[in-house]
């Protein structure tokens, strides 16, 4: 979004957009009638709303206590060379 891509030609950017796996799947979905453009826009809007909700929750939540830093951390003795 914010990259002006001055180091690439317009043609190169367009060629890579055609190879974008997300756009390829979207085209397959639309071409096969699995969903409509409106369905995909609704899904996109729902995803954006959920992400915004998660960001808001994270920004409004207090930082955890420093004592939480080492809780639920996996540890294996002799890693990465475990002795059997």
Low-confidence stretches: none
Proportion of β residues?
under 5%
Secondary structure tally: strands: 0
Describe the oligomeric state of these chains in a short phrase: single chain
Number of helices: 3
Taken from the alpha-carbon principal axes, the silhouette is extended
Roughly what percent helix? 40-55%
Rg (C-alpha, Å): 22 Å
Sketch the major β-sheet. none
Report what the structure shows.
The structure is a single chain. By secondary structure, the protein is mainly α. The chain has a domain of 52 residues. It is 54% helix and 0% strand. The longest helix has 24 residues. It is extended, with a radius of gyration of 22 Å. The termini are far apart.
